[in-house]
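Is this the right way to post structure tokens for a design question? Let me know if I should format differently. Anyway, here goes:
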């Protein structure tokens, strides 16, 4: 491999080649500019007219064959991925679709409905399997456990009983019943994420905190003090790195933060994000992080060094949902009132 190729690989991975001479520094600068130009000049490879009202949810199927989107009129649409065009199958449910999640095996699809319920569908036949009623005024977040046996949900309540609704419910998908609740937040829980090992659940709230829970014990993890502080406004998005060692949190305080899960150490805060952050997503190799903000832009970051690599496209509304495809080659973003989902094909990493 020649030196420019090595430098490109090192820069994408957040490394600094050593030793560094003045000539090498100049070369690195040119290479970094080349890499960023390749990304920032990318035009969306595909535009999906998801909704006549609102594009608020998306998720790739675990096998990477489909992108599934949710619209403001309750339409859930399958779109083929990998060079194919057109639409796949679809289904409808009451009210706006505000979040989607596949079970890890790809067999089931869970969707938050505007009627305050969560519906679980057979992803192959599109048959309704379960309707979960969290008994809150609205549902804000959901997440499948890595073994696919449990679904976590969170929501809010505008009634006098609001404090009782600031919890996370754990549903047994075999029976469709609540098997436990996690309480401790002081306001509505707005984001959820399971760690890859399934033993830890992260929850983010309007109370500005992120909490880590021992799922089996239904209790805060004492090793982290139960709470990761630091955000100055609502926590809006969460994502674990694929190896489970790092947690990313996005907030309306216009930052995304990276935490070490084991001890709760704040690794770094990512700033200059273009407004409140509404979505975060790790690449499948864990080396990059996507953030979506209310300025309608999707930003790509290097996790190791925290460097901003590129800004991809712009919606007329904020970015409401983000995802990497399972192979890491495609990025998808939902644009809210822009009513579209944009996809970008990322340049292949140098060999």
């Amino acid at each position: 491999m020649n030196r420019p190729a090595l430098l490109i690989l090192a820069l994408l991975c957040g490394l600094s080649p050593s030793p560094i001479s003045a000539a090498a520094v100049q070369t690195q600068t040119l290479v970094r500019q080349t890499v960023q130009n390749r990304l920032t000049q990318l035009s969306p490879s595909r535009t999906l007219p998801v909704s006549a009202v609102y594009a608020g949810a998306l998720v790739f199927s675990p096998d990477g064959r489909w992108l599934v989107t949710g619209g403001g009129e309750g339409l859930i649409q399958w779109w083929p991925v990998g060079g194919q065009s057109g639409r796949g199958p679809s289904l409808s449910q009451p009210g706006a679709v505000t979040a989607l999640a596949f079970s890890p095996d790809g067999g089931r699809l869970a969707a938050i409905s505007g009627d305050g319920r969560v519906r679980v569908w057979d992803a192959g036949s599109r048959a309704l399997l379960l309707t979960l009623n969290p008994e809150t005024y609205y549902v804000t977040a959901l997440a499948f456990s890595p073994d696919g046996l449990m679904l976590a949900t969170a929501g809010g309540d505008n009634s006098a009983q609001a404090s009782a609704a600031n919890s996370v419910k754990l549903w047994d998908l075999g029976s469709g019943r609540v098997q436990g609740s996690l309480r401790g937040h002081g306001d509505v829980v707005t984001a959820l994420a399971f760690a890859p090992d399934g033993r830890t659940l992260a929850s983010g709230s309007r109370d500005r905190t992120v909490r880590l829970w021992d799922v089996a014990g239904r209790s805060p993890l004492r090793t982290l003090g139960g709470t990761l502080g630091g955000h100055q406004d609502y926590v809006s998005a969460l994502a674990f790195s694929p190896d489970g060692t790092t947690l990313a949190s996005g907030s309306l305080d216009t930052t995304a933060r990276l935490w070490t899960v084991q001890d709760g150490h704040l690794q770094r805060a990512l700033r200059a994000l273009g407004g409140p952050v509404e979505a975060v997503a790790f690449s499948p190799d864990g080396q990059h992080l996507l953030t979506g903000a209310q300025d309608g832009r999707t930003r790509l970051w290097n996790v190791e060094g925290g460097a901003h690599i590129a800004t991809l496209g712009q919606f007329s509304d904020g970015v409401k949902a983000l995802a990497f495809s399972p192979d890491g080659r495609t990025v998808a973003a939902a644009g809210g009132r822009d009513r579209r989902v944009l996809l970008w094909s990322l340049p292949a990493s140098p060999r």
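Format looks fine. Someone answered above. Worth noting: The CA atoms of residues 259 and 266 lie 5 Å apart. The chain is about 10% helix and 40% strand.
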